[in-house]
Please model this.
Amino acid sequence: MTTTRTKRVSIKDIAERAGVSISLVSFVLNGKSREHRVGEEIAERITRIAEEMRYVPNMVAKGLRSGRTYTIGFIIPDLEAPYFAKLSGIIEREASVRGYSIMMGSTGESDTRASGVIELLRSRGVDGIIAAPNHGSRDEIERVASEGVPIIMVDRRYDGADIATVTLDNRKAAYEATCGLIERGYRNIKAVTYRSGLEHIGDRVDGYLEAIAENGLAPEVFSADYYNRRDGIGRWIAASMSGPDKPDALLFMADILCVDGIIELTGAGYSIPGDVAVISFDKNDAFDLFNVPISYIEQPHDRFAEAAVEMLLKAVNEKEELTADKSVTIDHRIYWRGSTPVCH
Amino acid sequence: MTTTRTKRVSIKDIAERAGVSISLVSFVLNGKSREHRVGEEIAERITRIAEEMRYVPNMVAKGLRSGRTYTIGFIIPDLEAPYFAKLSGIIEREASVRGYSIMMGSTGESDTRASGVIELLRSRGVDGIIAAPNHGSRDEIERVASEGVPIIMVDRRYDGADIATVTLDNRKAAYEATCGLIERGYRNIKAVTYRSGLEHIGDRVDGYLEAIAENGLAPEVFSADYYNRRDGIGRWIAASMSGPDKPDALLFMADILCVDGIIELTGAGYSIPGDVAVISFDKNDAFDLFNVPISYIEQPHDRFAEAAVEMLLKAVNEKEELTADKSVTIDHRIYWRGSTPVCH
DNA sequence: CTGAAAGCGCTTACAG
DNA sequence: CTGAAAGCGCTTACAG
Model:
């Protein structure tokens, strides 16, 4: 394997071998034979030679010339979070089916890294962007949109921004989950969330508060620090579960919070649902593995991914603007399982 | 937001505004002022104007001209598998720190899709490839390598292929895990794997068989069909656990197999470790959540990712070949926890 | 039906 | 110290 980097074959090479001009090769290889009325035998010869030479088009050159890279940028907080890993996987598949590839950039919820990712995607000339950006990236995301790069937000949204989104009706989902707990007989329902300023998380809290208020109950929301979740949740659980105002049910606003919560609860000797019922946003494989199946509010990844890719590519191809009025809401579904039995 | 797609600013725009040639702009913006002895005031002016105009270099043009795209291709079986999600996340971060972006393609363990991904990455002109390819993609991977595209395999390897790898010593890890079980008093240890032809999985089975043979015990390996894991494992567990040759410990060759196994075991009413001890390859969040912590053999994702990115970029920059002798072995670590107590 | 030529944005010898 | 020009591989009017 002492092969030196062999030059890739170009349309020029094919043209030479076929004894025609590069224009003809380009026409044929792009399926424009008919349009340009290229001679049939010539077209066949070109196709055959291209195959023989294992021609792979240089998308970089194509991209420079045509301004289209057939690449979609995807901005996520964290590829390691199961929720986003799943979403990324499906988006990648949906895109690849349509001939697009994905360039991924994760922000780690850091605004600085988000800036870097955005600039990187712009420099790479992606045709469009699907983003689940930080709260603090609003200005930059809006600037990208105003510069005419098609962009669509997924999972997250900015209050009042004129950008199309694909989201759950988070307020309603949390409202329904809370009402469901109340119907099942729970009366002291507390919510666990994390500080972030993220609108969609705020929507969930709003839905919870609304349901609690409507039913004349007392709300309590614990906000963990994102980077010290486990500790914060652990301390809060210790205090809360042993205090006079012990909750009978917990609503977690994200699966990662719930996983931490379950570990802390069981670690402190509390049983689910014996001591406290548990329901969480997002689906997480661990919810099936726990000794009682954890109830959850599902965000259908596949529908998010499909909608986002489809809408984005439509905008790219038809030069539409992805304004807020194009936004789509995906239906959630609540799975009531062993962690939230009916009580009396 | 009725902005039409505004043209991006190019070095030509900057040159015009600065009243100089594009060469100068190129020199300055690429930090070659000194090298080309560009006038100091001019250099400053160019830098300032570039910032004012929010210049973002067109990497597509750069890529066409220089043949370098500052993009790494990453081929994985499945982004949704926690193990690869984690690995991808770290690789992306490592690459981005070094100014590279990642173009990801998942194969779903399908050779056809793998072909598509490889061609896509080649057409995009990635500077190098990190791959955890299918068993069946060997020829294509070797061809890519022989064409001079730097490529390194991670997690997986091909028997006797002259391609650098970053892997665990899988045989040794399985050997040690099996010996550990034997030391803890287990005598009827069975292994659960899946059919794939993948060398690294085969290595694990070899290590298991070696340890069993050395200790004069009887081996049994169950091979599930990858796409019907849960069912297959469930049926095998039902038969195996109720038969005369009931295992006292199970070694799972991958976390996904173990998760399925645990669900099937508990579903069938067996307790861990009461009825059977369990240890698995890979770390999985669910292993912490189960009512007894599951023992596992850790593959350190971060060290895999760092080694792969570093070696690949070194090869890219120094035009080295990534031959098999450059391969690196990452140390595993076994966590013995509640699912494998000492028994007598 | 086919080819020569311009140009996408950039880098880099080559002149001066 | 600075600029004009070629060329990366491709597409696409424009001629013929």
